[in-house]
Amino acid sequence: MSFPLSRRSLFTAAGAGLTLGLLPGGLMAVAAPGQGATVHNWLHVGPDGTITLFSNAQEMGQGGFSGVAQLLANELCVPWDRVAVKTAPLIDAMGMAGGRSHWTGGSSSIRSQWDKLRYAGAAAREMLVTAGARMLGVSVAECRAVNGHIEHRSDGRRVAYGAVADMASRLPVPANPVPLARTDWSLVGQPLLRKDIAEKVDGSAIYATDVRLPGLLSATVMQCPVFGGRLVSVDPSPAMSVPGVRRVVPVMSVSIPIPGSEQPLIVNDAVAVIADHWWAARQGLMALSPVWDFQGKDGLDTDGMIAAIQARLNDVGSIRKAAQEDEGVIRTRHATAMAGAARTVRCDYHVPALAHAQMEPMSAVADLSAGKAVAWTGSQFATSVRHILCGLTGLAEDKVTVHTLPSGGGFGRRYLNDYVAYACFLSKQAGAPVKLIYSREEDLAQGRYRPATACRLTAGLDQNGLPVAIHTHTAPASGQVWIAIAPPGTEAQPDHQPSYYLPAPLATMAEAGLPIPNGPWRAPGSTQGAFFFECFVDEMAQAAGQDPVTYRRRLLASNPRALRVLEAAVTASDWGRDLPPGTGRGIAIWNSFQSIAAQVVQVQVAQNRVRVEKVWCAFDCGTIVNPDSVRAQGEGSILMALSASLAEKVLLESGAVSSRNFDQYTLLRMEQMPVIEVILVESPDAPVGGAGEPMTPPLPPALANAIFAATGRRLRSLPLSDHGLTVA
Amino acid sequence: MRYELDVNGHRQAVDAPTDMPLLWVLRDLLGLTGTKYGCGVAQCGACTILLDGQPVRSCQFPMEQYAGQKVATVEGLSPDRSHVLQQAWIAEQVPQCGYCQSGMLMAAAALLREIPKPTDAQIGAAMTNLCRCGTLPRVRRAIRRAAGMVAG
Ligand code: FES
Ligand code: FES
Questions:
Q1: Are strands A583-592 and A595-606 parallel, antiparallel or unpaired?
Q2: Radius of gyration of chain B (CA)
Q3: CATH number at residue B43
Q4: Alpha carbons A113 and A523: distance in angstroms, whole number
Q5: CATH number (domain holding residue A523)
Q6: Buried (b) or exposed (e) across A633-663, using 16+ Cβ within 10 A?
Q7: Using 50, 70 and 90 to split pLDDT, how confident is the model at B15?
Q8: SS3 B84
Q9: Cα-Cα end-to-end distance for chain B
Q10: What transmembrane ranges does the database entry give (chain B) (predicted)?
Q11: Which domain holds residue A573?
């Protein structure tokens, strides 16, 4: 159900007590319907002292669901073990950041809601303290909030929050609540146990694949294997003879109107089978021989894809610039500086398409039977799920229901709701609730891939080997990938870009426009950009005759914050120490999501066998809410990037993906895993940065640089398996 | 076909197609959804269960091969998350998305039954399950903790 905006019904729903919301620019209690109020976040203090926090971060493993609550609980001064966390209702008022939309991504749950959550918590705390002071018969100034109680500062008398929650709820909401001073934080910065972990050790966590409902049918789907192909016909009879199969649904030319948008959601042509259980649906689907029209798009293979992006390296491309900047001025400045260079360095790179390969295949449950419109998904974009339900049923937003569940990994893939559209469409067709699960083969063959990207980097160096001009030219298979370097004098920290401020930069891009669907893949753009640029920095260092760390120190002279992160990695790894023969180290640094990550990788290489021994990762996200969660994201980001660098590569044959299961799309195993050390650096005065993605980009270039140090071989493309290297 | 199974110590009768893998019998017919589907081809380990104490990828073999055997799933580890591995998993905050973790726990249970104090190499050889979230360092630490090899 969607939460009604009435305060009274909220109390009915949640029990008596204090419930609070936050308005942009001010605070007030939850408004009645029709007042147009935008309420931004919620908490509930029950008369029994229970505290429920509503988190609007969808949990896909990153810890954001619990992290949002930890920030709120800190401001409320409540004991963590008394806090329960629930998923926020899908109301505009509780949209992500300052918007109305519910989505989770961009490492933004904490950083974009930092103030919102603190002010909401502070307002509630002040109301509770005011009520507590009244009950104690003293002035507010004599009281403070401690561990779920209001305490008299000098005589130590206490009342519990629960005892005054009702009274507090009748007080005016403070107009200017004051968040706690950093020195008064009790929970932020602590490695608290995440609220979502316990249910993940006994199988009780419910993902979309696990939802059970009366009369629930199971479905699976096969889209045209060639991207952009159409379904001509399908003979359902081979599937219908599989016991348990209920029906075969051809999906042809389906588009779903999206409320508030000119663009309908186009659903790829597909064949679906609906059955009593998933195994029957899968067997039925495998028995079918659909007739597809590939629309002439079945010519592309893996090598052709790489050749197509490499061909774009010679294009002029479009330029990246601010609206007020003049393209001619930028190009002239760059060309002039380049002409004055003592020497130039130029290298070409490329990286393959990658699949998200999250462990839970795409799955969703929908019930559009008998006038209902309900979906259960682990989508990163719940508002779009609602739009799909509205579009398919014609119902108003408040008549459809979206249940957001934890997902078995997102990494950006679940921002795209293709699977939700199928589940909803199939439920409508069947007139029954339907659970759709992609087979792993379908999941990997119908991804929204990190686009394969080629890159040409050209630098002009002065006599000291320092850059006087840089040209970055990127060529993604589809979508946008830029390396836009900040020139000296830029005030902001670079973001999603190299950590350096460098002179006379020119950024161009030529998209190859290949018909391969793309989407955000953990640290979008940065996993390609960091590999290209940080490998290139090592080439510039070599041209300058300098050690990679010494050279980066010089490039970072004007960015003390990034330099400090680099030094933390250098110190922890004891960079420069003597290493055994065949052993080498590489370093890389990258700014993304307002955070900075520097990594040192140590490898041992013998006869084309690479052992990745250790990764040191220094990380500065400004302020840390949960250091253990941040470390976990560091471990996860590093291993995902390492896995991608070793042997991951989406393979295409005749326009279709041929790497369709984990035997062809291989992921890192425990035996290949290095020791990982995460070093946390804080910058209390900096804006709060993200943590779920920014430790991903530095790994691939640091690894390639380490292999160069160990072997003298420059790897200008990934994965390592393309170079005959195996990882033990 | 009608089969008799012992699942987590309970005798169960189930009607299932002969070629239906145990994974789908557990999930779709018996409602034990803790065991997960990840690949269906014995590559990922998300579906790992114990069959007469041995770790088995339950997506692989058709139901008819399991009749009469003792099946243990993650739901049977303990009624209250008190199993030494579950405790270690919480203490080390192992799961991220959690989807692979039922299989990890069952593979770890089989390992410790076989080798009570495994070396890292033995842990690596036994734990071939995939985890996209990158929890493997913590999986290893939690196994060592459960085996009493690190201070708790
Ligand atoms: S689902 Fe059985 S091993 Fe992957
Ligand atoms: S915890 Fe997400 S796949 Fe392992």
A1: antiparallel
A2: 15
A3: 3.10.20.30
A4: 19
A5: 3.30.365.10
A6: bbbbbbbbbbbbbbbbbbbbeebbbbbbbbe
A7: very high
A8: helix
A9: 48
A10: none
A11: 315-353+450-727
Element (DSSP H or E) covering residue A119: helix A114-136
Query: CB-based contacts of B42: which residues, under 8 Å, 6+ apart?
Result: B57, B59, B60
3-state DSSP helix/strand/coil percent for chain B, to nearest 5? 35, 15, 50
Assess if residue B151 is contained within a domain: no
Using left for φ > 0, alpha for ψ between -120 and 50, and beta otherwise, residue B24 falls in alpha
Give every CB contact of residue A29 below 8 A, 6+ residues apart in sequence. Answer: A7, A19, A20, A21, A169, A173
What is the band of A249 on the pLDDT scale with cuts at 50, 70, 90?
Answer: very high
Global pTM reads 0.95
| Separation of alpha carbons A220 and A437, rounded Å | 5
Could you please report the per-residue DSSP string of A270-322? EEEEEESSHHHHHHHHHT---EEE-TT-----HHHHHHHHHHGGGS--EEP--
- In sequence order, what are the residues at sequence separation of 6 or more whose Cβ sits closer than 8 angstroms to the Cβ of residue A623? A188, A189, A682, A683, A684, A686, A688
Residue A581 C-alpha to ligand 2 middle, in angstroms?
36
Say if CB A2 and CB A90 are below 8 A apart: yes
Judged against a pLDDT cut of 90, whether residue A140 lies above it is answered with yes
Q: Is residue B50 part of a domain?
A: yes
In the DSSP assignment, the letter for residue A227 is T
Bridge-based pairing of strands B2-7 and B70-72 is: parallel
Q: Which of B76, B100, B126 is the last residue of a domain?
A: B76
Q: What percent of chain A has pLDDT over 90?
A: 82
The residue segments making up the domain with residue B104 are: 84-146
Establish if B100 belongs to a structural domain: yes
Phi, psi of A500 (to 5 degrees): -95, 150
B5 inside 8 A of chain A by CB: no
pLDDT of residue A260: 85
Q: What is the ipTM, given to two decimal places?
A: 0.97
Instruction: Give residues 106 to 135 of B whose Cβ lies within 8 Å of A.
Output: 123-125, 127-128, 130-135
**Which tens digit of pLDDT belongs to each residue from A8-31?**
223 323 345 665 554 433 333 433
Question: What is the structure's pLDDT at A121?
Answer: 84
Tokens 């299932």, located at residue: B16
Write the CB contacts of A311 (distance below 8 Å, at least 6 apart in sequence): A512
- Six token digits for residue A513: 């426009």
Which residues in chain A have Cβ-Cβ distances shorter than 8 Å to B35? Answer: 203
Alpha-carbon distance values, A271 to A254, A414, A422, A645 (Å): 12, 21, 10, 34
* CB-facing half-sphere around the CA of A293: CA atoms within 13 A: 8
Number of domains in chain A: 3
pLDDT tens digits for range A336-365: 999 999 999 999 999 999 999 999 999 999
| CA neighbours closer than 13 Å in the CB half-sphere of residue A248 | 23
Taking contacts as CB-CB distances below 8 angstroms, the residues of chain A near B85 are 201
Q: Average of pLDDT values for A688-717? A: 97
Is the domain of A272 the same as that of A321?
no
- Judged by CB atoms closer than 8 Å, whether chains meet at A202 and B34 is answered as yes
Residues A586, A521, single domain; the answer is yes
Distance CA A270, CA A483 (A): 37
Q: What are phi and psi of A169, to 5 degrees?
A: -70, -20
- Interface residue of A202, A274, A435, A631 to substitute, partner B, most B CBs within 10 Å: A202
> Facing residues of A10 across strands?
none
Higher pLDDT, A49 or A436: A436
Q: Which residue of B has its CA nearest to A378?
A: B97
